[in-house]
Design brief:
By secondary structure, the protein is of the alpha/beta class. 31% of the residues lie in helices and 25% in strands. It has a 6-stranded mixed β-sheet, sandwiched between helices. The protein is globular. The structure holds guanosine-5'-diphosphate. Guanosine-5'-diphosphate binds at residues 19-25, 36-37, 39, 41, 125-126, 128-129, 154-156. GO terms for molecular function: GTP binding; GTPase activity.
Length: 176
Amino acid sequence: MSSAPSYNYLLKILLIGDAGVGKSSLLLRFTDDTFDDHIQSTIGVDFKVKHTTIDDTPLKLTIWDTAGQERFRTLTSAYYRGAQAVLLVYDVGRRETFDNLKLWSEEVDRYSSCKEHIVKVLVGNKTDLGSSQVPEGMAEEWASSHNCIHLLSSARDSVGVTEAFSATVRKVLATP
Ligand code: GDP
């Protein structure tokens, strides 16, 4: 019996950024359409699989979440290996989480096996809180100097989440 896969592409996507910016919440909103105000950080890298269709292309996405490991700065090459894309997440209400993306982006470049090709997407999360400490122009400038797309999201209100993952996939599929 044939066991041909039901998808055309298998993509590995990473969520990166400081603790508390909402990486797990973005993942759970995208994969399960749920949100938890009291989400617990668990120890150990975790990932979820989502089958989806974007622009008529069936895809299997494995989306990796640091699950608290970023606190210890112990993400290693295994986490990055084979990843086609990374969502660099900051909290729009906490300026330092944006400033720290410089370090995270450097780490992506250091560890990723295909650093010239890895797609980076900048995501400013928690827009529902209303008070941004990161001027949009500054984020746009950072994004263009790092060859990223920039999007804003609220995992809580389910705004911009599907868009962030769709934009990521589109850019991966358009990257040679
Ligand atoms: P992680 O450490 O980056 O994975 O962040 P979490 O997903 O664990 O979220 C940290 C905290 O921020 C939790 O209390 C979440 O409920 C909250 N949170 C995550 N996303 C949002 C959002 O879009 N809006 C608001 N208001 N809170 C959020």
